[in-house]
Design goal:
It is a single chain. The protein is 47% helix and 12% strand. It is α/β, with parallel strands linked by helices. Helix 6 runs parallel beside helix 8 and helix 6 packs across helix 11. It is globular and about 50 Å long.
């Protein structure tokens, strides 16, 4: 076989360019990058990888604005990032963070390409698997604000959350430890205890609705299925990137793994 034959392009359907709003936090963005590339390579083989453009934001000012309820400032930052991704050629956009999906409607309203919504993917997955009640663990904003629970309710799923004291502990751990890749044993033990207590009250599945929580919780820590929202999200992003033709709706139905 000649060199020209070896490098001749294959007649394959290449995926659309994926735009990621990351840095929220950086460890979870690394997970997104790895999983998206793995999924694209599994579909195309050889040395294929995902076509990704990344807008990596500084999470500290956004975290501060979230804490002080400066919603318009956060929305402005995310909208500007989304526009830059589209200008760079992104044909599908995703937020690499559960918490900021509170602002997803405002972000997608100004986009001419689909925004793949992690809340939609997760709620749809739970409904398709027949879960009527799930335990929801995430940032304090995700557990206390209605945007996630309302999405579950649309699919007939009831989401229950930890106590106020546990939510406070989780938020502090996410901000000061998990978001920088630091996972002390004592923190993991507390997360496991919270999950076990929550699942002991009739929850049929545990939803890890924070991109950092899989660093401390995993399947086997509880006696019910553990749902990693990042995995569902990545599957839906790749599905949209390969879709023919690309759905015109902003809130694209998610094809998620079983």
């Amino acid at each position: 076989m000649s060199l020209s034959e070896e490098v001749r392009p294959l007649n394959v359907h290449l995926p659309r360019k994926i735009g990621l709003i990351g840095g929220l936090s950086y460890p979870s963005t690394l997970t997104y990058y790895a999983r998206l590339n793995q999924r694209v390579n599994q579909r195309l083989g050889r040395a294929h990888s995902a076509r990704i453009v990344l807008e990596s934001l500084d999470f500290q000012p956004i975290a501060q604005q979230l804490a002080t309820r400066e919603d318009l400032a956060v929305i402005g930052t995310l909208q500007a990032a989304a526009r830059r991704l589209v200008e760079a050629g992104a044909e599908v956009v995703a937020l690499c963070c559960n918490t900021v999906h509170k602002f997803a409607p405002a972000i997608e309203a100004g986009l001419r390409v689909p925004l793949i919504n992690i809340c939609q993917c997760t709620a749809q997955h739970c409904a398709e698997h027949g879960y009527g009640k799930v335990a929801l663990m995430g940032s304090a904003f995700t557990m206390e604000e209605p945007f996630y629970r309302d999405r579950f309710a649309r699919f007939g799923v009831n989401a229950v959350v930890p106590s106020a004291a546990d939510r406070l502990f989780m938020q502090r751990a996410i901000e000061s430890e998990l978001s920088v890749g630091n996972v002390p044993v004592t923190t993991r033990d507390r997360f496991v205890a919270i999950a076990q207590e929550l699942c002991g009250h009739g929850a049929e599945a545990l939803v890890l609705a924070c991109t950092e929580i899989p660093l401390v919780l995993r399947a086997g820590d509880v006696d019910v299925p553990v749902i990693d929202t990042v995995e569902l999200h990545c599957a839906a992003i790749v599905q949209a990137a390969f879709a023919q033709p690309l759905p015109p709706e902003r809130n694209v139905p998610c094809a998620v793994p079983s």
